[in-house]
Amino acid sequence: MTNQNPEQIARDTIDKQLIASGWIIQDKKKFNLAAGLGIAIKEYVTDVGPADYVLFVDKTPVGIIEAKRAEIGTLTVAEDQAEGYAKAKLRLLNNDPLPFVYLSNGEIIKFTDFRDPKPRARNVFTFHRPETLLNWFKEPKSLRGRLHDLPLLPEDGLRDCQITAINNLEKSFQDQRPKALIQMATGSGKTFTAITFVYRLLKYAKAKRILFLVDTKNLGEQAEGEFRAYTAQEDNRLFTELYGVTRLSSSFIPNDSQVYISTIQRMYSILKETELDESAEAENPNETRFEQKEPIPVGYNEKVPIEFFDFVVIDECHRSIYNLWKQVLDYFDVFQIGLTATPDNRTFGYFNQNLVSDYGYEKAVIDGVLVPYNVFTIETEITKNGNIIKMGEQVDKRERLTRKKFWEALDEDEIYSGKQLDKDIVNPSTIRTIIRATKENLPMMFPNRVDSNGNFEVPKLLIFAKTDSHAEDIIEIVREEFGEENKFCKKITYRSDEDPKSVLQQFRNDYYPRIAVTVDMIATGTDIRPLEVLLFMRDVKSRSYYEQMKGRGTRTCSIEELKAKGTPTAKFSKDHFVIIDAIGVEQSQKTDSRPLEKVPGISLKDILTSVAMGNTSEEMLTSLANRLIRLDKQLSEKDKAAFTENANGQTINQVVKQLLQAHDPDTLQNLEIRIQNELRGFAPIEIEKAIDAEKKKLIDETVAVFHNPDLRDFIVDIRKKLDQIIDMVNIDTVTNIGWVKDNVEAANTTVTEFKVWIESHKDEITALQIFYAQDYRHRTFTYKMIKGLCEKLKTEKPLLAPLTVWRAYEQLEKTNGSAKNELIALVSLIRRVVGIDTHLTAYDKTVDANFKKWIFEKNAGQHNAFTEAQMQWLRMMKDYVANSFSIDKDDFDLSPFNAEGGLSKMWQLFGEETDKIINELNEVLAA
To answer: Is the whole-model pTM more than 0.70?
Structure first.
């Protein structure tokens, strides 16, 4: 319909929303209150004028809707008008004031229940169903009224922090605050606290249903177990004897339970009416790198109306309640309660800064609820600086998927960094060096742990690995280095051959395994009280995720439990745990959240997982199609046949064609024309509804093949058939080891001694005299001078060798760059000590920065001050200064200049400017 005014457009949208929510819309002149349970009559006359809609339920008026045009976004200006209609007398009826009042402009809906103690408008996703308003109408009090009937909390059996959290939360409910945040340190009983207040809400506030939302299947299973084990103190019966608890594992939601446990991924798929395989619930969706620019909107689902739940408890709420997943929470008309040990700024903002419990790790340690930790560092040469495998070296290569090895000669030098270890490059020596150092130092960390045979008893130790393949390498080396059998060390990941839950139970309760290796399965929510050591062999960039991983070791453990389940030789209760940092995780920069904007290069696994979770945007499906097209070109015929077998007989090309057609404008236009022809004469709303349903069906059929986890795993695994290089050439060594506090003290001592030595020798060493000179224009020195200084330092103070002092600085402050060699390190250190640089900066980085600044200044006011040939020569001079600290005419007889024509080439390029250029570079590059 065209030429509609803005208010009529808003009314049409409201009509659609009412019909979807189960209401029958009627005209005031042709109404029939017996036509259904819920009737919305337009323009019903009251004694203060016609109301836009009056809502009747079971022939009784219960509410009104005041409609405004879409341009009016500030609906609060119409609150008095709407309340006036609600209090008015309806024509021909002697009604009481109507309790339920809606304001809507078609885009925003605000709802007020005037039976509440302090009626306050709140935003709702859409209109409540007629049967809901009927039930509410029959209740003597509203839910918000019943929240004032909660009795005093019995405090027996509760910790002080739990009592504070529950009391403050219930006060927040009574103040009608829609969101509340409970921060409680990992191990202080968050879930027990949640079940306690859930029990009170069900018993005393007569809440109908409560959703317990998690972000991994593992957390859901643990929560279900805790609900089933909870005994109500006031009743002495199990929770499940009193109330139904259902953990959702399909798209079906029964309506006869009171507590529903679900992953946020599954609830999203339920609202979207798409199927979700359980494998999509294995990982925290916040770890998925892909975020579409526009989240796929959740639509109304009559099977799960917005009022289905009264409360939603969000466990680990710091992780997965933003962006795409936030829609699940926006959909329901509920109170929201967040649980977390590690909130960040986003979390505080989302919960309206309503922090009802602030019980962090430090407070829990002071109270004896958790144990403190010490950090022990193991740093190796290769994890820090990487290494090189020379061209022509015969090396092992290994397929990532099958781990099959084969020999191959390198056709070029393979230079790798520490960050590439266990991904592109595997160096068994590095793993072995770390494990051996761990084994050698455990007896020092836990003295007197000796069994009756005189053997040291290894404490329960959890290793965090980078990947599943990395975990396999670690397990093999752990068993070998400790000289133990299979059961001594086991893997606990989602991809382990053994049931991970069974191994986890063994690790928690039995003597074996002593050491467990995991990637991320037990990063959160797993109670392993006897655990005493965490070995980090993977870095973590997320601050909250790192805190969760550390939380595995924070639990207290009595001497009796420690002896029974962990370590029989223990002499005392668990009073601390140890973090062994073998990757620099304690020093690496942490962030509160991931950036919202994503760079290109999303992993194929992330795309497949997002599609399986119901993300079927055009951008997503197109990205997947493009990835499959590229994959198709790389696969053998055998692999393509295997794809077809896993894809219900479809080839890659057929799947790609469907993906590209799902949002194709021509395909969608033809679909609309077909539906319009088939439903000619039907109401426009019905035709539009049928078109939307057919579009949804098209997309569902397109992505149906990807609900099969076997196909997703096949695609991801086949992509992984890139080879890892096994570096058996370079043997690793420990460069730094010890307790962090001891390391810091030692570093301070080293730096102080170095400063004293430099200060005491500044007058007698030419190089230092130049550095300390006030005339900055002449602050240059020769390679020979700095070489002599370095030799003097190492002779007089061998423990103050430049690289040793550099590492000491790294313990104390953030450094810029790395020391390429000891002479560059020494110059960098001198600059730091005398105050030229405020932070320790690698000299070559200083030279690079000064060179860029100099070129920029030369180019100012003119397009290009130097030709490309001149720029190439200047860059060579810059690199030479970075390594030799100055340059003069004699140096042009040396490499690399002599190969390019030497000083004569310099004159040819710069002519009369040659001397000036050399002098300027000596002056500015060392500034």
So the answer is: no
